[in-house]
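step=encode ok
step=design start
structure_in=
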């Protein structure tokens, strides 16, 4: 990266933040800081850091396991300390927590800062513009479709295991108005992540919002499993992906068709490059080429994806040891207001009908006791707690462009 150091700020202290902190700190010329606003996590991480380094264990299919040992230069709950002279800020935490971090960082973010959602999830860019105002317009915003790794903390602040690394990661960038970032944001981020995943940055930021597939994958699978449920407890928790039914696969596919259709409509009306939006079957072929044993169609691809082996539906246990669906899990509480509702909001601005999205959304909001979609319009009482463009007053194609 040359003689100039990169100052990276990681927002968050979960699995992905641990993996990224360890990987980036081990590289030459990097100063890595971690901002955690959650309870006493900064203190806990610091305490462990006094005693030992952060070890990241990297597993790759068909390769020897490698170990990366390093430590970030600072773990803090002070936004002011964390932001001093920072080049790039990466949000590696759930979408519902972005607001708190943006509010804390707002006084210290300077025009020209690079802000990255990894993943930002749908509505990230709208929220950045809303919270940061004029400064937000002059920051470079990048958003990526998902986390680079499947990973888990095995010892807080000390050890993290990377179970799998994606081959490629799709993202888009919007340069800040009137200011060029000091360092190229894409090559800087690629350096910080290492050789994999290979970052593919193209098209309009809106395309990445539409390609945040969890928004329709998790919600459609949940709908497919429980929509006709009789309310009786089950003897065991059903498999989430590998237990997919053909009818649920068909819902996912229809919802994905609608998402592709929204992108097509947007490209036709505005001329924006939406080539980064593809059908979810193609997404699987790109992200999991080695893991899927039967690539015949979407149903077989999800059913036979080794990366999903054994994962079950979120459930609550009854007193007699049986299971009920847990609709307070993030597959609903995160993927609806910070996912499907945002996509539905973009479709509404475009004037595009989305009967399958509406079906999944209407059922999901009932299970959650929320109200977003009412009489085929996003006008329910809970819309302001979502990241739909409408909740920030963005209601025209120009405003979301």
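sequence_out=
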């Amino acid at each position: 990266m040359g003689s100039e150091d990169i100052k990276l700020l990681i927002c968050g202290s979960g699995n992905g933040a641990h993996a990224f902190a360890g990987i980036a700190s081990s590289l030459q010329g990097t100063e890595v800081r971690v901002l955690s606003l959650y309870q006493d996590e900064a203190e806990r991480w610091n305490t462990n850091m006094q005693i030992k380094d952060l070890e990241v264990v990297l597993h790759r299919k068909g390769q020897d396991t490698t170990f990366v040992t390093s430590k970030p230069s600072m773990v803090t709950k002070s936004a002011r300390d964390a932001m001093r002279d920072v080049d790039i800020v990466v949000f590696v935490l759930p979408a519902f927590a972005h607001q708190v971090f943006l509010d804390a960082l707002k006084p210290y973010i300077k025009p020209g800062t690079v802000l990255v959602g990894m993943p930002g999830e749908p509505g990230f860019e709208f929220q950045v513009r809303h919270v940061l105002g004029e400064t937000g317009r002059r920051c470079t915003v990048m958003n990526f479709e998902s986390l680079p790794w499947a990973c888990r903390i095995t010892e807080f602040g000390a050890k993290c295991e990377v179970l799998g690394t994606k081959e490629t990661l799709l993202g888009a960038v919007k340069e800040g108005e009137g200011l060029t970032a000091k360092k190229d944001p894409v090559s800087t981020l690629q350096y910080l992540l290492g050789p994999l995943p290979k970052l593919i940055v193209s098209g309009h930021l809106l395309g990445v919002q539409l390609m945040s597939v969890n928004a329709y994958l998790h919600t459609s699978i949940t709908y497919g499993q429980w929509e006709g449920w009789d309310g009786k407890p089950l003897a065991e928790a059903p498999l989430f992906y590998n237990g997919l039914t053909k009818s649920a696969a068909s819902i996912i596919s229809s919802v994905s068709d609608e998402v592709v259709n929204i992108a097509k409509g947007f490209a036709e009306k505005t001329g924006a490059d939406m080539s980064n939006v593809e059908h979810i079957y193609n997404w699987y072929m790109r992200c999991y080429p080695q893991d899927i044993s039967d690539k015949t169609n979407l149903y077989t691809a999800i059913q036979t994806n080794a990366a999903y082996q054994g994962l079950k539906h979120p459930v609550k246990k009854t007193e007699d040891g049986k299971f009920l669906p847990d609709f307070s899990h993030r597959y609903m509480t995160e993927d609806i207001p910070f996912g499907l509702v945002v996509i539905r909001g973009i479709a509404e601005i475009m004037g595009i009908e989305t009967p399958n999205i509406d079906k999944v959304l209407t059922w999901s909001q009932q299970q959650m006791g929320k109200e977003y979609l009412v009489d085929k319009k996003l006008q329910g009482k809970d819309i302001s707690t979502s990241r739909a463009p409408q909740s920030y007053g963005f209601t025209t194609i120009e405003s979301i462009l």
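step=design ok
step=annotate ok -> The longest helix spans residues 246-270.
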